[in-house]
Amino acid sequence: MKPTRRRTPRTAATLAAALTLALAATACGDNGSTTGEEGSGKGTITFWDNNGGPRTKIWKRIIAKFEDKYPDITVKYVPIPITNVQSKYDTAIQSGGDSLPDVGGVGTAYLANLVAQGALDPVTDRIDDSALKGKLIKNMVESVRAAGGDDKELYSVPTSANQGTLWYRTDLFKAAKLPAPDSWENFYKAADELTDRGGNKFGFTLRGGAGSIAQALDMMYAQSGIPSFWDGDRTTLDDPRNVAALEKYIALFKKVTPAADLNNDFAKMVAQFDQGDIGMLQHNLGSYVDHIRLLGKDKIAGIPLPPSRAGAARTIVSNPVDGLGLFKAGKNKAAAWKFIEFAASPKMNSLWNEDVGAIPANVGAADDEWIAKAPPTKAALESLNDPRTKVVQLPYYLPDWNNISKADNEPSFQKVLLGRLTAKAFCDKVANELNAAQADWKKHQD
Questions:
Q1: What is the pTM for the complete model shown?
Q2: Which end of the chain is more exposed for a tag (fewer CB within 10 A), N or C?
Q3: Rounded to 5 degrees, what are φ and ψ at 392?
Q4: Which residues form the signal peptide (predicted)?
């Protein structure tokens, strides 16, 4: 393998830049640590699972297979709860980095934070020199690249992705003689015709509580067809086409949805859909298992959100991409990379994604039997692989992204649902905050 290129990544944020400077002394070895070594390719490596618990069983299966293939490498598995993983990484970095793993699960939602603190090695060259070259879904690769804040380097190997899915009750559609909601015209017609408020039956359920803005963005960009989150250095979120799409979306509330949607997070929304007479739900692939378990395969189907108009390219808002990161402080990167390459190989990547119900990143898994038996996953994979599909890359690299898109503005979104704030005023408010955050980020690039 040729030496990995060393490029200086663009700092992802003002706050992260300050933190990087504060950590420079410890990260560069003042406490006796090194920046990491290739090592012998043998021995023990540590792997942090970023969703320990739900995924522990499948990871242990993969690790056992890896150790069978490489008997001179032992993988120390450490399950980290998904709610604690970012703080766990931050604490380890702030302590000097010695306690960081050799390999860790890294999602795009917090990738930029790790890149800014200098915790990860770039993996671009390693991928190019491996069996993974040209075998990773391009849209996932671009999502990882964009989330890392560096347009030249990848800082994790993508392993899986989720995707927004329009779930619908095939039994209710059949009884009402309605076509599948594969166009926006069909969607809004079904939402109306499947609603009987007096009978406690609703055409749709939406998310008004935690996570509401993420779902709203899915619905807005899919309907507007705007292919990019930025137009220069200004967000397209407040484009009149997106405002119009949001107005149509919020008009569904309490007209064809339950009033409880105002405070529903995803768990409550999904449970309400699975246990009641609700025609449609927009959520990701992660709820597929619950739908099948509670409704049965004959009563549920899932498709990607429709294109903006007939014949147009489908527009998809990027979902967080999960991946495996190679940590800079590791002392045996050669062995760590063998593990990453093995886990991301077609067979192992397929095995892992079949277990968790996500889209595999390795194109070699696309024709596996389990995908053919899971139509929603197959449809999501095909749409993601379609060269016409436009993926709107959300700015996960902005340090203020989570605050702006979640806690800071979710109460304002509830005001929109209640008619106390217009869709335009909401979009203008969020757009102004995003534009300021983008300007600040660009100012602090290296």
A1: 0.85
A2: C
A3: -80, 105
A4: 1-27
**Nearest to residue 326, comparing CAs of 49, 183, 121?**
121
Tell me the one-letter amino acid at 169.
R
User: Is there a contact between 371 and 188 (Cβ–Cβ < 8 Å)?
Assistant: no
Tens digit of pLDDT for each residue in 109-151?
999 999 999 999 999 999 999 999 999 999 999 999 999 988 8
CB neighbours of 169 closer than 8 A, spacing ≥ 6?
278, 279, 280, 295, 299, 300
Find out whether 184 and 306 touch, Cβ atoms under 8 Å: yes
CATH superfamily of 43-161+321-382: Periplasmic binding protein-like II (3.40.190.10)
CATH number of 164-318+398-444: 3.40.190.10
Radius of gyration in angstroms for the set of CA atoms belonging to the chain, rounded to a whole number: 22
Token code pair at residue 312: 């147009």
**How far is residue 248's CA from residue 242's CA, in Å, rounded to a whole number?**
10
Q: Which residue spans of the chain are classified as CATH 3.40.190.10? A: 43-161+321-382, 164-318+398-444
Q: Note whether 325 and 120 are within 8 A (CB).
A: yes
Return d(Cα 127, Cα 122) in angstroms, integer.
Answer: 10
Q: Taking the CB of residue 30, how many other CB atoms lie within 10 A of it?
A: 10
Distance between CA atoms of 339 and 91, rounded to whole angstroms?
25
Cα–Cα distance, 169 to 146 (Å, whole number): 36
* Torsion sign, CA atoms 98, 99, 100, 102: positive
Give CA–CA dist 388/256, Å, rounded. 32
- Say how far apart CA 376 and CA 59 lie, in whole Å: 24
- Residue 332: pLDDT over 70: yes
- DSSP H or E run through 282: strand 278-284
